[in-house]
């Protein structure tokens, strides 16, 4: 015979009856409980290397059309922004956000000596390091270190995923990853964990560290779950993974949780083969989810305080390959969506396709200056300490 | 704290090997550490058998790609895709077969040391033949001479490809290989200059591999000019550079420090380090002698060095499976554990290897670690989805299908298996019931910390002696303390 897992956790214990009382009920009486000015960042990671040139299309550039006889998106099909730039046709909501002045686009973002391995380049972006350094912490993890000194719940940075990304790992603190607040709550609400945690007495440093992590997880799981129920969103979201994730984020943004940073991924954008269909599918998922999310934020007067930013570990080569796809490239564009932008639209020039490095775009903006700007201007934190160096602050937020 | 003879023996087995097996756990009260060490050395003395999953490159798929070069690009892409798929599957098999060695092989010392070198000489290439050959070099030299190991690894096609030395040519040097050999494999930062790297890169020009996956020295690509490296000048080639690096006492210190922080304590004791590294250097980089110096010292068995090391995910899985003999319905579930816990064999995060220590732990990984023993014992599945790896998928999978397949795969994979509890009952057959709980804790845990028995007692089955043992073993493994060794 064998035990069910639940039985291991409950053998001999009488405390199976739920004692959780719905103390969240009072929440429904409250309206607009989050005061304005409470800034939040939502990072959307495009995993796999999104093709930036078919995202923001250089519609007046012959080099682009020459290099992409099949994959190039025509001027007529693109959603025109300026005479030189158009958006991928699947990104309708981004076109309206652009028209409203709630979208900013930064072109040619990258770093020196770019790496074309997904894993390595993603590490570089997430850790905010040079391509010659190996850093074991992420930029948001170090933000958490600075933000959560001595706090008992590291919930200032949350990732909607089963596994925590390097971006959210700090030296002292780690962000928390979960896909569903309810599941997080039920899997960590085992009485066994709580009992052994309560019974632990400080002994040796490493074991104390493990207990501290467990204890923070248990209390954070409670906290996040209670908060997620405070003011569940009434907006309809698409039933896609990103749709569900942004819905979870929205419900937390409307609560009075202390979270400043949310992290979520979409992918895979690794379009070596038959790019058009795959990118369209992912962009449709993105478009519909962001549409619901921005509508929701506007309805609840939170749009000015939330900044959504997108990035990918690299862009793709200027010319298409033989399989109607594109191969790993370098610099790429980033989107910034918010009602509180100081500068809107195209923040800099479209990439110069006549000045390439071995068929790849040259970066004009170091992504670390974008991080520095977000950390300093939006989150009001000490970007120099977090990034280990003083980067320029840009002026779009 | 009184350190019992058993605790010392378990300490040796956790650090030098993958922890005690249920079958021999009972005998650890009496044997001396010296005897146990000799046993570990003896059982690891044979040259290991190669773990073979991939054919030589000249056969099959790779050859196909060469032939197809004549044909149109699409057919070539199709062949390359097949080859990558095959490679990916082969690497999974290599992973599971090597993990099985860590669990079952009597050559515990060799496999444990190989795992260390696998992280030290971290190589992330999706070519199963390269990975298989590199692993064999590592396992063969794991306890031998560090110089031999360094040379074998440096000439392996896997490492040459990973660190771009195939592109390192006279007049057009690629410094990646030279840089990492100095920074990560031998001396460590701060002991050489950028100029030394540039010069060493010139010496490595021409080192590469051929279609058969063999090391070749391409004379016509080699820069024969004079180079000055670490104060020495000459017409050096790659072998000369490695010899110069081995001549540097810094290399002995760097390697010894890394071994010390991995096997003894992350807080390195300077006096011990100095003594060990000097002997390592004087003994011409004899790895086994260095290990003997460590494992036969008195300080290795002192309180501050016991029970405070966080097991790596692979060590955790191997340790559980050594104590709980287990037939898994599907070995691949172990890949899922590796993925979600952050250590997939053959996929180190970068050339610096897995950082280890507290880096293994965040709230997600800790909670999964705590669930694993229960999941295994209760024949349940983990409901958790690991992140995608685009370097592995190579853009070949359409996202939607991928998601469906992934979910299906994990539903099926789960971790169902059968634990053979008999050897575990035998370990404690002479233990009186009232001492059983304590005895199990003392057998499974190295940390001085113990879950309070009043907390534990509520969760223990008392209907039979067998169920009592089962539930205590699983509960004790479900604690933060069990993550340590």
Low-confidence stretches of chain A: 11-32
Q: What's the helical proportion of residues of chain A?
A: 25-40%
Largest sheet of chain A: 9 strands, mixed
Major beta sheet summary of chain B: 2 strands, antiparallel
**Count of alpha and pi helical runs of chain A:** 12
Question: What is the helix/strand order of chain A?
Answer: HEEHEEHEHHEEHHHHEHEEEEHH
> Which pair has the most extensive contact?
A-B, 72 and 78 residues
Radius of gyration of chain A: 22 Å
Q: Any idea what the shape of chain B is?
A: globular
Shape assignment of chain A: globular
Could you please say which CATH topology of chain A applies here?
Alkaline Phosphatase, subunit A
- The separation of the N and C termini of chain B measures 17 Å
Structural Rg of chain B: 24 Å
Based on the structure given, which CATH architecture of chain A is correct?
A: 3-Layer(aba) Sandwich
Give a brief outline of the structure.
The complex is a heterodimer of chains A (397) and B (485). Chain A is of the alpha/beta class and 397 residues long. Helices cover 35% and strands 13% of the residues of chain A.
């Amino acid at each position: 015979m064998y035990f069910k897992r639940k039985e291991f956790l409950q053998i001999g214990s009488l405390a199976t009856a739920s004692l959780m009382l719905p103390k969240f009920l009072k929440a429904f009486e409250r309206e607009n409980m989050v005061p304005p000015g409470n800034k939040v960042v939502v990072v959307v990671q495009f995993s796999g290397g999104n093709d930036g040139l078919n995202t923001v299309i250089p519609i007046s550039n012959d080099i682009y059309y020459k290099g992409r006889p099949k994959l190039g998106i025509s001027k007529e099909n693109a959603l025109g922004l300026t005479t030189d730039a158009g958006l991928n046709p699947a990104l309708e909501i981004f076109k309206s956000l652009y028209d409203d002045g709630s979208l900013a686009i930064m072109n040619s973002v990258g770093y020196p000596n770019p790496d074309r391995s997904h894993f390595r380049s993603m590490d570089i972006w997430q850790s905010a390091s040079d391509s010659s350094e190996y850093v074991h912490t992420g930029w948001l993890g170090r933000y958490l270190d600075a933000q959560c000194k001595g706090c008992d719940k590291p919930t200032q940075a949350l990732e909607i995923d089963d596994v925590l990304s390097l971006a959210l790992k700090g030296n002292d603190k780690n962000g928390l990853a979960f896909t569903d607040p309810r599941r997080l709550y039920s899997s960590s609400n085992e009485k066994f964990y709580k009992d052994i945690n309560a019974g632990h007495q400080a002994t040796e440093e490493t074991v104390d560290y493990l207990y501290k992590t467990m204890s923070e997880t248990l209390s954070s799981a409670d906290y996040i779950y209670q908060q997620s129920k405070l003011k569940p969103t009434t907006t309809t979201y698409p039933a896609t993974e990103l749709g569900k994730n942004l819905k979870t984020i929205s419900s937390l943004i409307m609560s009075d949780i202390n979270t400043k940073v949310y992290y979520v991924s979409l992918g895979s954008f690794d379009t070596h083969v038959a790019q058009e269909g795959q990118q369209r599918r992912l962009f449709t998922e993105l478009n519909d989810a962001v549409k619901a999310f921005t509508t929701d934020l506007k309805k609840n007067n939170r749009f000015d305080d939330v900044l959504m930013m997108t990035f990918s570990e690299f862009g793709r080569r200027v010319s298409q390959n033989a399989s109607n796809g594109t191969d790993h490239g370098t610099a790429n564009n980033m989107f910034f969506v918010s009602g509180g932008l100081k500068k809107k639209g195209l923040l800099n020039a479209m990439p110069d396709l006549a000045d390439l490095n071995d068929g790849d775009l040259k970066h004009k903006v170091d992504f670390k200056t974008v991080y520095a700007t977000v950390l300093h201007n939006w989150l009001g934190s000490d970007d120099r300490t977090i990034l280990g160096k003083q980067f320029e602050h840009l002026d779009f937020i | 704290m009184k350190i019992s003879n058993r605790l010392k023996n378990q300490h040796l087995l956790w650090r030098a090997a993958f922890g005690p097996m249920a079958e021999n756990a009972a005998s650890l009260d009496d044997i001396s550490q010296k005897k146990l060490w000799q046993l570990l050395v003896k059982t690891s003395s044979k040259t290991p058998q190669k773990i073979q999953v991939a054919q030589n490159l000249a056969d099959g798929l790779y050859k196909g790609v060469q032939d197809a070069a004549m044909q149109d690009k699409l057919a070539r892409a199709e062949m390359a895709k097949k080859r990558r798929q095959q490679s990916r599957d082969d690497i999974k098999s290599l992973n599971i077969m090597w993990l099985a060695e860590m669990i079952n092989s009597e050559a515990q010392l060799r496999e444990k040391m190989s795992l260390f070198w696998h992280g030290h000489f971290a190589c992330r290439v999706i070519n199963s033949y390269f990975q298989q050959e590199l692993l064999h070099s590592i396992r063969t030299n794991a306890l031998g001479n560090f110089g031999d190991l360094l040379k074998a690894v440096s000439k392996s096609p896997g490492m040459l490809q990973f660190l771009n030395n195939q592109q390192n040519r006279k007049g057009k040097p690629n410094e990646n290989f030279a840089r990492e050999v100095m920074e990560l494999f031998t001396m460590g930062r701060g002991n050489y200059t950028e100029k030394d790297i540039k010069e060493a890169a010139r010496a490595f020009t021409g080192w590469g591999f051929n279609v058969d996956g063999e090391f070749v020295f391409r004379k016509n690509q080699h820069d024969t000019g004079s180079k000055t490296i670490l104060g020495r000048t000459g017409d050096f080639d790659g072998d000369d550079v490695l010899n110069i690096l081995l001549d540097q006492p810094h290399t002995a210190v760097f390697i010894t420090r890394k071994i010390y922080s991995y096997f003894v304590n992350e807080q390195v004791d300077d006096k011990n380090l100095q003594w060990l590294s000097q002997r390592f250097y004087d003994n011409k980089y004899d790895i086994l002698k260095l290990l003997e110096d460590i494992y036969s010292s008195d300080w290795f068995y002192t309180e501050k060095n016991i029970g405070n090391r966080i097991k790596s995910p692979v060590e955790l899985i191997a340790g559980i499976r050594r104590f709980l003999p287990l037939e898994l319905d599907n070995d691949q579930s172990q890949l899922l554990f590796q993925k979600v816990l952050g250590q997939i064999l053959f996929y180190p995060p970068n050339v610096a290897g897995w950082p280890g220590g507290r880096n293994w732990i965040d709230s997600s990984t800790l909670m999964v670690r705590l669930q694993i023993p229960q999941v295994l014992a209760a024949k349940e599945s983990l409901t958790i989805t690991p992140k995608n790896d685009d370097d592995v998928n190579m853009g070949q999978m359409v996202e939607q299908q991928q998601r469906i397949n992934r979910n299906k795969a994990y539903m099926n994979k789960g971790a169902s298996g059968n634990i053979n509890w008999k050897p575990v009952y035998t370990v404690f057959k002479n233990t009186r019931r009232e001492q059983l709980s304590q005895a199990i804790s003392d057998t499974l845990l190295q940390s001085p910390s113990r879950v309070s028995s009043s907390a534990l007692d509520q969760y223990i089955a008392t209907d039979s002696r067998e169920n009592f043992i089962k539930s205590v073993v699983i509960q004790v493994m479900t604690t933060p303390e069990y993550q340590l060794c």
